[in-house]
Amino acid sequence: MSLFKKLTYRENYEAALEYLVSSETKHAPKFDLVNAPVALQELMQMAYMPRSEERSKWLNDFVKQCWEIPDGEAELLLAEDHLNAIRYVNRYLRKANEKLKQDGFLVVSFDTAAKRRLQFYSKYPKFIAGFLYFFDFIWHRVCPRLLLTRRFYYFCTSKVRKVFPRPEILGRLYYCGYDVVSEQYIHDRYCVIAQKRRSPDPEHHDYGLIVKLPRVGKGGKLFNVYKFRTMYAYSEYLQTYVYENNSLQTGGKFKDDYRITTWGRIMRKLWMDEWPMFFNILKCQMKLIGVRPLSEQYFNLYRPEVQQLRIKHKPGLLPPFYADMPETLDEIQESELRYCEAYEKHPLRTQLGYFGKIMKNIVIKRKTSN
């Protein structure tokens, strides 16, 4: 049981909130306000002030003034409401993108899903809290996302109170053309400072069970790998952000990857998330044994000679990683080099040999994906 779960009893609310603040901002970047625009410095200074009528009036006036600036000229925008109460979040973030000049700042706030859970467990006895939280999860987090229940949800809900996991909001910001420069709790609400860097992504995003992830294939061409969703929605847009703020752990995966859901970790342990990749094999984009299909960001971490050798071959469902169990990025590259060189000399013998080693590590030694 995690420390957060142990703390989420009614008498431990303050301790649980303090733990939540430290854990959710563990890998958040630190933003130097000294070199920030004066308006942003003043806004954040007022945001840190204790809640009062004067503070609320100042913030409301600031919102009204900054949103009246013509499109493409605003240096700083403050969201008109917390994001949980905004029905069309992406549409709102795109509108802000149009308002801002290049490298302008957007400040948003929201209540995270973890805080929502804490509120239930601090208010009710444990059994009742679990029961109520389950139905709150279905109503405010699932129903607004499903086509069949979305209209019914908004018809029945007089005030929108959607629930967002922290990675989803961060991913939405990147999807809509921003880079996140700061994350922090101000009082008891999560606050994010984002900076406009580009136009919003034109690709449509959905919440489907199966996700399509762009990966580098044979010849260096990008293709979509099919996987069961194991991460929060929009997490795929956080690849670079997570790399810049999280270190790599043994095996080359991100350490403390907060994008992965609880169910996603279980699916990865059982290899269930990889099953849809058999469709990539049927489409002749991949083979059973081969180098791991990498994102462009991760592919660019490899040495040039390894990159050139990799793209001569189709990636595989079962990578040589599970035959050698390397621990560092350099060791992973050496493992893939040995596989590619052996495959070019003796294709069938190499495939059979690696298949045996991989099955031994997975079935007998229980080596699984993180």
Topology (SSEs and partners):
Layout: H1 3-7, H2 13-24, H3 38-47, H4 53-67, E1 74-78, H5 89-99, E2 100-110, H6 113-123, H7 126-142, H8 147-156, H9 166-175, E3 178-186, E4 189-196, E5 210-216, E6 222-228, H10 239-245, H11 262-269, H12 277-282, E7 287-289, H13 296-299, H14 304-310, E8 316-318, H15 321-324, H16 329-345, H17 347-364
Parallel strand pairs: 1-2, 7-8
Antiparallel strand pairs: 2-4, 3-4, 5-6
Describe this structure in words.
The protein is α/β, with parallel strands linked by helices. It has a domain at 210-364. It is built from 17 helices and eight strands. It has helices spanning 3-7, 13-24, 38-47, 53-67, 89-99, 113-123, 126-142, 147-156, 166-175, 239-245, 262-269, 277-282, 296-299, 304-310, 321-324, 329-345, 347-364; strands spanning 74-78, 100-110, 178-186, 189-196, 210-216, 222-228, 287-289, 316-318. A four-stranded mixed beta sheet has the order 1-2-4-3, sandwiched between helices.
List keywords for this structure.
alpha/beta, four-stranded mixed β-sheet, two-stranded antiparallel ribbon, 8 strands
Contiguous runs where pLDDT drops below 50 for at least 5 residues: none
What profile does the largest beta sheet have?
4 strands, mixed
Radius of gyration: 23 Å
H/E series: HHHHEHEHHHHEEEEHHHEHHEHHH
Determine the mean pLDDT.
88
**Terminal Cα separation, in Å?**
19 Å
> Beta fraction of the residues?
5-15%
How would you classify the helix and strand content by structural class? alpha/beta
Shape: globular
Specify the number of helices: 17
The count of β-strands is: 8
Strand order of the largest sheet: 1-2-4-3
Indicate the percent of residues in helices.
40-55%
